[in-house]
Amino acid sequence: MSSPAVGDDQRRDACATREAILKAARRRFSSCGYADVTLRDIAADTEVSAALVVKYFGSKEDLFTEASGFEQDAERLLDCELPQLGEHLVRTLLDYHEQTQGDPLLRAVFTSSRPAGAQFRANFEHQLLTRLAERLPGPDAQLRAELVCSHLMGLAASRLVLRTEAITAEPKENLVAITAPLIQNWLDGPL
Amino acid sequence: MSSPAVGDDQRRDACATREAILKAARRRFSSCGYADVTLRDIAADTEVSAALVVKYFGSKEDLFTEASGFEQDAERLLDCELPQLGEHLVRTLLDYHEQTQGDPLLRAVFTSSRPAGAQFRANFEHQLLTRLAERLPGPDAQLRAELVCSHLMGLAASRLVLRTEAITAEPKENLVAITAPLIQNWLDGPL
Questions:
Q1: What are the tens digits of pLDDT across the range A2-58?
Q2: Best of B143, B148, B173 to disrupt the A interface by mutation (most A CBs within 10 Å)?
Q3: What does the pLDDT look like over B120-138, one tens digit per residue?
Q4: What ipTM does the predicted assembly reach?
Q5: Would you call B147 and A124 a contact, using CB atoms and an 8 Å cutoff?
Q6: Are A116 and A31 in contact, with CB atoms under 8 Å apart?
Q7: What residues have CB less than 8 Å from B77, skipping those under 6 apart?
Q8: Are residues B166 and A124, on separate chains, in Cβ contact within 8 Å?
Q9: In terms of CB atoms within 10 Å, which of A137, A139, B72, B92 comes out highest?
Q10: Domains of chain A
């Protein structure tokens, strides 16, 4: 019987491998398009076997659906009542940064910018942005949802890509305190 | 003697060619690094001769300095007194979007994210971000400057990459009216 520590290590490794495969899949699919990518390409990028990719994700279509999608992110990001949603959004995204050095909104920006990014962009819009807009009362809900996402994307770009000094050094709770009220204003409306 | 219309066309063509060369140079240099890029590569990407690249930009070093730099952008963006700077920043960036389908802050994000993007990132920081921070009175000037840039980057990503419906359709003056006061609050401080 393996000790609990070994079990934890294995789970962590499996999780990291899964993330690495997803990341490679996102890059390949958004750059080259579904038809021109094979599971073998993605496996090679991640230095694992194609069989392991199949074991983790099933078919190429299943992998594409998961790699290009924002369903799970939307579930996590929108899992909060409206009066606290501003704070929840900021805190959840800052947690993502810590845990994965990634951010789903920033991922939408980068994948959408690539030659075959149209499906990523459409999924971001339908699975996350529109769902947020539908939650908002009052006029200009779509515009307010876009302003919210837009601000959060900028924050992620500063922290994860440009890694600008002050925003990166600022304690998480201070960033929540600075930005959540602004986000909440847009969520509550009106503009 | 050529008619004024032909002269205008030539100037427009020259300007577009110059922009295309700069764009290719940015992509090449930030992806591959200075040493691994030749003027011939950049010329080929733009479908012009290497001689034309030299005519427009001088040496490879000169081209790198201009392609990786934010001096001219900073000059245009910061050319305003502090009390009106919020509005000036938003309006100037929205003008960039209309005129070039590009944005210097978004360019900083994309070039910095590439394997050889360190010099682009450093230039963005020294030539634009720090210069903005130095203009700001009161405490947390660096953090406030970063929040300003961060918000403007998000706006650019929404308009130029994700092209989300409402932000893209919103008239320029409305976007200025919505976002400039927020930007100005950070510029004026305190947080």
A1: 455 567 888 878 889 999 999 999 999 999 999 999 999 999 999 999 999 999 999
A2: B143
A3: 999 999 999 999 999 999 9
A4: 0.93
A5: no
A6: yes
A7: B88, B89, B92, B93, B104, B128, B132
A8: no
A9: B92
A10: 6-67 (1.10.10.60), 71-188 (1.10.357.10)
